[in-house]
Queue: 2 jobs
Job 1
Amino acid sequence: MKKWFRIAGLVSVLFLPALLFAQQSTELPALKQEAVTEVDRLQTFTQQMVDQIFSYSELGFQEFETSRYVTGILEKNGFRVERGVAGIPTAWVATYGSGKPVVAFITDIDCIPRASQKPGVAYHDPLIEGAPGHGEGHNSGMAVNITAALVLKKLMEGHKLAGTIKIFPGVAEEILGSKAFYVRAGLFKDVDIVLGTHVWHEFSTSYGTGDGKWSGLVSVQYFFHGKAAHAAGAPWDGRSALDGVSLMNAGWEFRREHLRLQQRSHYVIINGGDQPNVVPSEAAVWYYFRELDYPHIKSLYEIGNTMADAAAQMSDTTVNRKLVGSAWPTHFNKVIAEWQQKNIEQVGMPRWSEADQMLAKALQKEIGAKVEGLKDKVTPLSEPVKEPIGGGSDDVGDISWNVPTVYLMYPANIPHLPGHSWANAVAMATPIAHKGSTAGAKVQAMTALDFLLQSELVKQAWDYFRDVQTKEIHYESFLAPEDKPMVEMNKEKMEKFLPQLKKYYYDSAKYKSYLEQLGITYPTVKAQP
Ligand SMILES: [Zn+2]
């Protein structure tokens, strides 16, 4: 009896891995189908999350309500949550399961200044004048990832699947403020693959340099210090910090002509002094220096620093600087993208209603964009462009150079919008965002299953990461050891609007949707002439 057990034990040790793998591969399509069905069953939950976070409208580093709400859901569902990671109060990590592989989900949660907008209304109509709003659509990402994670947990329990799911929030993404700090804090050390996701009007994924419209950057604030004096009575006694700022900006504008065409740089004056009859003793300017790779970003940053020092010399002021954020240009993983693409094609575009299309077209007309409505086909996976031209940035770039990563773009917004504005908030608490998020959650869950059940795919993703992506380029953080996350940023702006925003928080116990709570007819469009 004893001996028989020993032999059976030996046999199972020898054959179990192969057996398990074969079993898992045949199980995979059925599990994916189950995931799709479960995501569909959670449609109301997904919609409520999209609407709830839309109503919080929190700026970078001030995502307190959003984080409380999301971590609350996760804890209630058996995830372990660690808060305040990487020295950021609104950052956290939620974990479920154990062992390998470790699959991480990440998506942004912050919003845009002055982008307040009534959802479902196809013209500029702020909910609260001047208030922050989800004018990019970051309110939908957590609905995608949490829906997928809850479904995965259920399947992992039900089918006894091994592996770990981790969830991260992209805090202060709009100021590229958190993810390089996450990497520095070692939060991704034990992670095998990262499935990031971001709102878009297409259903797509990419690898390598993708469409070439991504840049990396450093975001830096320069603080000039002068000497106050009566601006008319004794101007010769004063030294204007604003002169320092103005000279730096003028210098930068001239230098721009002699920089590579791939650079993009922009600035805002964050402190220009108090009133004209006081020579400004303090002034400050905030720059984004964008380029395509680490050496070029570093060199732009150094030119900026030289220009600041020279401007201080000219104005007889002093200057110091603070790094606010940084981002490596993204590089996504080919192996994961190829598997993800199959899932995108299997899920397909959401079925848009006439009302959805009417809202999209009316908004496109209103802002003078191409009137095309919503996309009805998924985007094929294309070869990365050979000569990137650059564009926006995302600090997920730093993660992508440390762990094999992809970014699923899910179709929850309207095409041809300007980005970072009220127009990009219009669809974000409507059926367009709800359906797009459900579609995104299906792909997240299916792609996670691909990697949970086929361990050799994790190896292939790492082979690409080591042998192709990082063969010649090695990650080096832009952060200096003394750089800290700027967690106080946006505090005053947020506090100013909080009492008004609270009146509009979505109450899902009382109202089916945020549109219903606000009494908005969907869609609200201008009468046709
Ligand atoms: Zn974004």
Note: Residues 148 and 445 are 5 Å apart (CA to CA).
Job 2
Amino acid sequence: MAKGLPSFTCTACGAVHRKWSGRCDACGAWNSIIEEAPLAAGPSGKTLGGAKGRQIEVTTLATTETPPKRAPSGMDELDRVLGGGLVPASAILVGGDPGIGKSTLLLQATASFARAGLSCLYVSGEEASAQVRMRAARLGLADAPVQLAAETNLRDILTTLDALRPDLAIIDSIQTMWADHVEAAPGSVSQVRSAAHELVTFAKKRGTSVILVGHVTKDGQIAGPRVVEHMVDTVLYFEGERGHQFRILRAVKNRFGPADEIGVFEMTGAGLAEVANPSALFLSERGQASPGSAVFAGIEGTRPVLTEIQALVAPSTLGTPRRTVVGLDSGRLSTILAVLEARCGIPFAGLDVFLNVAGGMRVSEPAADLAVAAALLSAREDVALPPDMVIFGEISLSGALRPVGQTENRLKEARKLGFSQAVAPEQSKTGGDDGMRVRKMPDLTTFVGDMFAAG
Ligand SMILES: [Zn+2]
């Protein structure tokens, strides 16, 4: 792009466009493209030239390097999501909707790390120190040896970090940081990127771990956390419905541990409490066996989690019936409805379908297909499924049931919670008698015939 021309950047994903448009081609977000001052002198025809650099050191693949030493916080749910604790010199992004409890989580985490012996600096760009202190007092953390600063000037923050050399620095939030070498407002894509770049570089050079807080933004005026995801080692998202007290910390990228790992918390008056047994929590609202409810034995990261899938099917008054989905992929629902109609002859035309995962959980595993189908059929036929039954299996377009991974773990968790029967795809590997009656089915038609007798 020629120097001096305005550039248009998507605040959701950071893609640069030649002109403004209502929708970003790169990520599909609406109204997210804003005009930004051009970035300072790009490559503009210059090459590296003949000047010599420093020769870098090369090694072999067989180098014996000890795995990074991790510092556990003592908060098990957080340590699990990090892959077993905090890795020194790592850069972590914690994203989430404003007001979901990111600052509470991070203040509690910082206090835990500080009590575990790490030197920690909490930099708040959102609130005054007094407000952070008030929150700490409310959470019972006032005695934790955390150093606190309220600042947004990146240069001053980096100078302070260089002088104090803490083990861990929290930047709350990256959107409030202001780098004086970038001519753009705080929160713009270029500011957020440069601030993240400087802080990540500092982390790598000086061995300080850095946690960046990023608000997920809706209106497109402020850059979202996605624009810095590629710069950091670990990306965590803090999720939850406002109306529910459950919060889920999910690893979507982790260079030092498994992605897709989740930590479950409950928002209480005294802050976030860890939930060691999420299945029990997600099923706690379950009452009497009722039509439209099916229990899915899922796997989140390395841990089995049971969730209740709820469906409601009602005659529609609309030309195009409603398909409302919460906590599941709506494309997946369409596929399952199409397979039910084409392979089993059960039409959902003229019926409104509402599908929901109880407790505010989000399920993305294809293994949930069969539980979704079971909930839909149970709602449509007005027949309740046995209350002690868990269901899992992927549905292919042919209507066949595909086996899914970690069958044993799913069944073990179900048994632990008092379930005594399961429906699984035919080729699932089970370890024989483990107190569970496992019904293995080859396809969806068999399942329908077996469970609902009506074809
Ligand atoms: Zn975009």
Note: The chain has a mean pLDDT of 88.
